[in-house]
Amino acid sequence: DTGVSQDPRHKITKRGQNVTFRCDPISEHNRLYWYRQTLGQGPEFLTYFQNEAQLEKSRLLSDRFSAERPKGSFSTLEIQRTEQGDSAMYLCASSLGPGTGPLAGGYTFGSGTRLTVV
Amino acid sequence: DQQVKQNSPSLSVQEGRISILNCDYTNSMFDYFLWYKKYPAEGPTFLISISSIKDKNEDGRFTVFLNKSAKHLSLHIVPSQPGDSAVYFCAASGGDMRFGAGTRLTVKP
Lengths: 118, 109
Prior knowledge:
Chain A is mainly β. Chain A has no helices and eleven strands.
């Protein structure tokens, strides 16, 4: 297992287009998270899944954003009708359980997908 | 709402000296606190964590201190090495994980 994989690494799209990102978590991890990071800021929570169930969504996740994890393995994040303000690094992370606790190692992050909306 | 704050965007220290990175939080319901390290073009990687029931956790050169009454935690790196140069994020968990804005540490040889 090579960790959390995200595809693509970079995406440039025109305003108004739809984009979809993919995340492949560590295989034994049951939780999967999506974060967004803009320049000079820390990762901002968007949503997370436990197995295939989407358990929490941030108010940052507008109606144009949708995430799925259909079989409890990989996940996709779709942004419809992209806006320039959507330009950011989109990070995926996974964990076994909540990722906290004395034996836990936090979340394992992927390298992210950098989205540029022009 | 910024529940986790790192007020120093950057820190520069000399190799061999101590690096102290600070973090403040507002939500008393957080039960775990973590530090992540991030190199350019990579995702954050987990460094060290501490439970809210403890006040100190040490792992090699890295020690995290938690002051619950002040809602403050800090990461001490001693001795600092040039390879420690990275952006360090403080994070707090009470369900989902919230991150600070990060502090860029530069360790000069």
